[in-house]
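Annex B. Sample input.
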Amino acid sequence: MKIGYEYQAINTQINDYNPSYGQDNYAGQYSTVAGTPADVFSQVQEAHNLADFMFGNRSSYSLTNFFIASVRQRMNFMYFQDDVKVMPNLTVNAGVRYELATPQYEANNKLANFDPASKTLIQAKDGSIYNRALVNMPLTNVGPRFGFAYSATPSLVVRGGYGITYTQFNRAGGENNLTYNGPNVVNATINNVVPTAASLCVTDTQDQTKCFRQTQQGYAVGLTAAANFNPALVTSRYIPSNMPTGYVQSYHLSVQRQLPGQIVADLAYVRNKGTHLQILADYNQAAICTAALATGCPSSTLAARRPVPTFGDIEIAYGGGTSNYNSLQFKLEKRYRNGLYLLNSFTWGRTFDLSGGHLETSNGDNSRIDFANPGGDYGRSNYDQPLNNTTSIIYDLTYGKGRRFGASAPYVADMVLGGWQMTIINTMNSGLPTNLNYSNSTSNGTNVTDLYTYRPNVVGNPIAPAANRVKTNTALTGYLLKAVGSGLPGVSLPTSGSPFGNAQRNMVVGPSFYQTDFGIHKDFGLWSEASKLEFRAEAFNVLNKVNYQAPDGNVSNGSFGSITGAYPARQLQLAAKLIF
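Annex B, continued. Sample output.
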């Protein structure tokens, strides 16, 4: 029987409130000639962006004041566990874990949270945990554990287990950090209005959201001053006061069998089910414009379409996330005998969730969901690779002293040819998913939030036939198919007032990965039994297989559908180690 307790006092100094020195964005809309076809515009997008930069016509800009937060958190973990031998061939392990963790609070109460009842930011103060953190501490985080091992026969063992694990450490950059809120931290993000003679910013005291400010004008004095804090100009953070702690239920059931020839086979079913996982969204996401395209719904209506018109984006971090992983895993191991060891591990699995982690949005994946329709973002995880197989071989070559051949070889022959060991690792994986997306400028009337990664429309299979692909010195083009007309196969931008296309999240699969690594190794004896020289030569990707990375899935880019990256080519490595 085991009983344990762990206490953690976590004190963190945070100073990543960016951009402290400012950030300017150039989307190219001011250099685009009216009436330019969309496909032509996408081909010269970078040139338009550069032209806007040269003239100082930024589409948006951001600035944050300097601030160091002293974040505190206290955690208490308690557990009980026992192993019970129910029968000589059956052992059961059972236990329970209780976790009591405070939400994050700031040492000097420099923290705020959005209050949906009053539609204001409320400030932390001395007092209870809630008064300081503005989020209640969960009290029901109980995690049971159960496992068993059953020896059906001397050569057959069945194992299984179940457990609940809580995700207490979950920082999504600054997105779920309430110290980011004003007036302690003022993160001003300005989307420039359409420039006209009357809309130019001429003073620092103007409402910067209603005038056009060029790069050469810098940033308005007092833009991030606490006295000038305006929630309409910033992104506010919001964590519901009764947010539950996310947890993962883990299951597994395996059968292990001893086969002739010192071979062990292991077949297992493994599942992880995530519940109340933290996800991000814009709580203040605007209603969809019912008019057709931006001409019927200008960007100036965005605030009026928001649930809280006096605020800009309100980024909510809440426990609405789910995940689901199921896999069949098979392992075959030939234990070392007669100079040969072999291990093959195969996994056939699928994993789905609502969004990627905020700092894990590879290949265009979403880190925020559509708050009005969270289920629409449920799709393949950005690390979903259904088929994975790895084969490892260690083989002692048969020539040399103590081996099958050359046992009595002369010293020089044995020194040069004898005692070598060969290793091979062969890896084969399914391709990684790519999330089809497009750029929806905040000046576009179809925009409902600038936090979301918008997906386009798809007709048929978006992966182009192999005949469409062209290999150049710098890229493999034509991997994805762009629709050239209404209703034709391929990817296209939404043409109605809704910015949400019908493309499923992470629906495109990139190229598969194949790689073989090869190595040889030998120990050279020296002046004593305790001294030797270890030599190793290794070739990674020895067959020099070209493994392409994911294609560009942004249909707004001129490089859409092109693959411009590949995993490393063959790499050779020599190493020596002297032991004495």
